[in-house]
From TrEMBL:
UniProt xrefs under SUPFAM superfamilies: Arabinanase/levansucrase/invertase (SSF75005)
Source organism (scientific name): Kaistia geumhonensis
Protein name: Glycosyl hydrolase
Coiled-coil zones: none
CDD domains, A to Z: GH43-like
InterPro entries recorded: GH43_arabinanases, Glyco_hydro_beta-prop_sf
Length: 318
C-alpha cells in the first residue's frame, strides 16, 4: 500500500527513475540518479557528484536488487568526480539509448551550472558508448525524455532552467541528427516552472507528465506536438509513511489499458516549510509505484497499490 518498492542501499538517495525491459531475458532494469543523501555539508554537493545507479528485477518488478553504478559516462576531458542526473533509457534501432544530464565537476554551488544532455548507446544495458552532446538552448538543460511520435520523428523533451524552467523539444529522424523545435510547455513567469518531462501513449492519446514540485502536471495530445493541460496527479499523500509527500520526477511503463508509473519522494522533508533539505533525514529519497489509466479521456492515478508483474510484451516504451 504505497510502500517504497526500492531504496538505494549505498547513499539512500535514489531519484529520477526510468525502467526498461532487457530484451530476450526476464530482467527489468531500473536506472536512477544516485544522489549522495548521506553526504554532509550545506551546499549542493549531495546532489552534484551523483552517479547513475542500477537495480534489476527478475520477477516483473515485484522486487529489485541493486547492481551498482554505470561506468564510462564521463568525458575524457573531465577527470575526477562529475555529475550525472535523470537518465532516459529507450530501445530503438536494435540498441539501447541513454540520454543523460551531465555536468562537469561536483560543485557545492548551484551557480556553477554547466549542464548538458549527452547521448550513449549500448547493446546490453551494461556497457555504454558515448555518441555525443545534443544541441542546447542554454548552459543549464536537464531531464531528457524521448519517444517516436506519430509524424515519424523522434522527439526529445527537456527542461531548460535558463529559460524559466520551461520544456523544450528537439527532433530527429534517426536519433543522431537533432534539431531544435522550440518551446513546448511554457515556464515562469507565464506558467508554473517544472522539470522531468515524461512522454508516453496510453488509451488512444499521447501524454506528458512534468514535475511541478507539488504533484505531477498532466498534458494530453493527439499528435505529441500540441499539448492541453489537464491538471495534477499524485499531489495528495499516500498511506505509507514514506509516501506522504507529493510524487516527483516519474517514468511510465505502459501495460495495455493501464501503466506503471515510477516516482520518488522525500519522505521526511516538509517541502512547503523548509526551502532545502539540510540533513540526511530530509535528503533521503525512495522510489514508489503508482497505477495509471485513462478514464473518459483523462489520466487518473492510484498510488496506494501493490506491485503487480510487468509484462514485457505490453510495454511500448522505455
Amino acid at each position: 500500500m504505497s510502500r517504497p518498492i526500492y531504496g538505494d542501499p549505498v547513499h539512500d538517495g535514489a531519484a529520477d527513475p526510468t525502467v526498461i525491459h532487457r530484451a530476450g531475458t526476464d530482467e527489468w532494469w531500473m536506472f536512477y540518479t544516485n544522489r549522495r543523501a548521506d553526504l554532509g555539508g550545506e551546499g549542493f554537493g549531495w546532489i552534484h557528484g551523483s552517479a547513475i545507479g542500477t537495480a534489476v528485477s527478475r520477477d516483473g518488478g515485484l522486487t529489485w536488487t541493486y547492481r551498482g553504478t554505470v561506468a564510462g559516462l564521463d568525458a575524457p576531458e573531465h577527470p575526477g568526480l562529475n555529475t550525472h542526473w535523470a537518465p532516459e533509457v529507450i530501445r530503438a534501432k536494435g540498441a539501447y539509448h541513454m540520454f543523460l544530464t551531465y555536468m562537469p565537476g561536483a560543485s557545492d554551488s548551484a551557480a556553477d551550472a554547466d549542464r548538458r544532455l549527452v547521448h550513449f548507446t549500448s547493446p546490453d544495458l551494461e556497457t555504454w558508448a558515448r555518441v555525443g552532446e545534443l544541441p542546447r538552448t542554454s548552459r543549464n538543460v536537464i531531464d531528457a525524455a524521448v519517444a517516436r511520435c506519430p509524424d515519424g520523428l523522434y522527439r526529445l523533451w527537456y527542461k531548460d532552467e535558463g529559460k524559466g524552467s520551461a520544456t523544450y523539444a528537439l527532433t530527429s529522424p534517426d536519433l543522431r541528427d537533432w534539431r531544435l523545435e522550440g518551446e513546448v510547455i511554457a515556464g515562469a513567469p507565464d506558467a508554473p516552472p517544472h522539470e522531468g518531462p515524461n512522454v508516453f501513449s496510453l488509451g488512444g492519446w499521447w501524454w506528458m507528465i512534468t514535475d511541478e514540485w507539488r504533484g505531477l502536471a498532466v498534458y494530453r495530445s493527439d499528435d505529441a506536438r500540441g499539448w492541453e493541460r489537464q491538471g495534477l496527479i499524485l499531489g495528495e499523500p499516500g498511506i505509507h509513511p514514506d509516501d506522504r509527500r507529493f510524487a516527483r520526477h516519474a517514468d511510465v511503463v505502459p501495460q495495455g489499458d493501464h501503466a506503471a508509473l515510477y516516482y520518488f519522494t522525500h519522505p521526511d522533508w516538509a517541502e512547503t516549510e523548509t526551502p532545502v533539505p539540510v540533513d540526511f533525514r530530509e535528503r533521503r529519497t525512495v522510489i514508489h509505484l503508482a497505477r495509471i489509466a485513462v478514464e473518459n479521456g483523462r489520466l487518473v492515478a492510484s498510488r496506494d497499490v501493490e506491485p503487480w508483474p510487468l509484462d514485457p510484451a505490453l510495454a511500448n516504451g522505455g
